[in-house]
Design a protein that fits this description.
The chain has 500 residues and is mainly α. It folds into two domains: 44-390, no CATH class; 395-497. Helix content is 67%, strand content 5%. The protein has 25 helices and five strands. It has helices at residues 3-13, 16-30, 44-59, 85-97, 101-126, 129-140, 143-148, 155-175, 178-194, 201-212, 220-229, 231-247, 256-259, 263-266, 269-285, 287-302, 306-324, 326-331, 340-356, 362-390, 395-406, 422-427, 444-456, 466-469, 474-483; strands spanning 413-416, 431-434, 461-465, 485-490, 493-497. It is globular, with a radius of gyration of 25 Å.
């Protein structure tokens, strides 16, 4: 290597920003694993709904204010959804390049790269460059953040906008620049419109502003700006609810038992066990990440520092959010995504402090080695969980390929599966979903009544997930075979043509 290039490389080699860039590039590259697989891994129902909305936008004239799902009938199935900016952006790419699912994943991945960059920037602002680098590493080995960073879902955009809002708000606290406050409010408006849960950041912002910028709060200006952040969300969700009142189709945004806390949930020991052991430790942070986050929180609590208050109150705001949305957080691990960044910052601080002990006596060296081993242990914990998230059951895709080989008309169908829309999506058809929840799998009369109702409304085929076919009673199975024409009973799925 020429001397000038060697000096240039060494100048960057010694900077944490060089290693942060390398870490971000490595994390982004790793997310390409399984990039071309069907959307049938972790949370397939949510990915299929988002992808269906994008495909329907592209096919239906790009009507932004009318997101359409595949379920609910032969269509059009306009639905009350969250702000569909992500699906619309994917649809715009579809119009240029054709329907390719990896385009949706690519847009999510771009936002994931921005998340990593913002975690590093926030870490440098709050703590030290070394702690910021460790925090970025811990964020990169979060299984849920990593998977959502390439999933066909808007969560990656929501988290990127939320972290951008947090970064500019922290800059405003330090420097008092009005532009930073406006940027924080604008990004909060974007995040909250994409997903209402992002507004939990206001809890943290309020606590910090009361501590560091109390004088500015005497003016009406910051209050008006923050109030303005709610306007886009209020306008969209008012419009979306009007769609629901007309069509009866909804993502259940306002359903209390679906997402919001109930007293029975908050008093349940099972809720806290699952949240800590399965969601947070296994899926969200990894066990090594959780250990470092708890150690960092304890160190921050014990030591006086300016950044201590900012990180601990951020963690506190997320805990409040998780308790308010207890049902959603219990059922869906990605509801805990807001926890990853502050936990990574706390864990990064603990890691940096632990590694610094290597310069001390033998006990310090031992503590530093243990810290390094805990950090290293996060990698296999992450990769194992990520691979399990990316693993697919492609029965729905194969069922769609089969059905479209025997019928190219796109006729509506009835599906019987776990209640998810992925079977409709991969059959590329509108229709209805029958769920095994309740008595449907055992009550032949009820099953027949629903199938014949949908047949009379236009359904031409019944597509069944083989896993749930086995749960049907003999009476239900006999009804299907006697009343309708079985076309195939393949591995993972079965298809019947509905007779009149």
């Amino acid at each position: 290597m020429p001397p000038i290039l060697g000096r240039f490389f060494m100048a960057f080699y010694k900077r944490t920003s060089f290693w942060a860039a390398a870490l971000i590039a490595l994390a982004l590259g790793q997310k390409l694993y399984g990039f071309d697989r069907p959307l049938l891994g972790h949370h397939p129902w949510r990915q299929a709904d988002t992808a269906a909305i994008a495909r329907n936008f592209a096919a239906g004239g790009m009507k932004f204010f009318y997101p359409e799902v595949d379920w609910g009938g032969p269509g059009p199935n306009y639905c009350e959804t969250e702000f569909p900016l992500y699906s619309y952006a994917v649809a715009a790419l579809y119009r240029v390049a054709g329907v390719r699912e990896w385009l949706g994943r690519l847009l999510a991945l771009a936002a994931y790269g921005l998340q990593l960059f913002l975690v590093y920037k926030i870490g440098r602002r709050l703590i030290t460059p070394g702690a910021a680098l460790a925090a970025t590493f811990l964020f990169a080995v979060s299984p849920v953040a990593g998977f959502m960073g390439r999933a066909f879902m808007p969560e990656s955009w929501v988290l990127a906008a939320s972290l951008g809002s947090a970064y500019f708000f922290l800059r405003w606290l330090d420097d008092g620049r009005t532009g930073d406050f406006f940027d924080a409010a604008a990004l909060l408006a974007l995040a909250g419109t994409l997903k209402l849960t992002a507004f939990h950041l206001l809890i943290w912002f309020a606590v910090l502003a009361l501590r560091y910028r109390r004088l500015e709060l005497r003016s009406p200006a910051p209050w008006l700006v923050l109030a303005g952040a709610f306007v886009p969300a209020a306008m969209w969700y008012y419009h979306a609810h009007r769609i629901f009142l007309k069509t009866g189709l909804t993502f259940g945004i306002w359903v209390a038992g679906d997402k919001w806390a109930t007293l029975s949930t908050l008093l349940s020991g099972d809720f806290y066990r699952k949240m800590l052991v399965e969601n947070v430790a296994a899926n969200v942070l990894t066990w090594p990440g959780l250990v470092l986050a708890l150690a960092g929180a304890a160190l921050l609590f014990a030591r006086r520092s300016d950044f201590r208050f900012k990180i601990l109150t951020w963690l506190g705001a997320v805990v409040v959010y998780l308790l308010v949305l207890a049902r959603g957080a219990y059922d869906h691990d990605y509801y805990a995504l807001p926890l990853v960044a502050p936990a990574a910052l706390a864990g990064g601080y603990a890691a940096a402090e632990g590694l610094k002990l290597f310069r001390r006596n033998v006990w310090g060296k031992a503590a530093a080695v243990v810290t390094a081993l805990v950090l290293a242990a996060a990698v296999p914990s992450y990769t194992g969980k990520f691979r399990s998230f990316a693993r697919v059951n492609d029965a729905a895709a194969r069922a769609g390929a089969y059905l479209n080989s025997v019928d190219e008309t796109g006729a509506p169908i009835v599906t019987f599966n776990n209640g998810g829309p992925q079977w409709l999506y991969y059959c590329n058809r509108k229709g209805w979903i029958l769920s095994p929840k309740g008595p449907l799998a055992e009550d032949a009369a009820l099953f027949a009544r629903l199938v014949e109702k949908y047949r009379d409304a236009g359904a031409r085929y019944l597509v069944v997930d083989a896993r749930y076919y086995g749960l049907m009673s003999n009476d239900v199975q006999n009804y299907i075979d006697d009343a309708h024409e079985r076309l195939t009973m393949a591995e993972g799925f079965a298809v019947w043509r509905l007779r009149r």
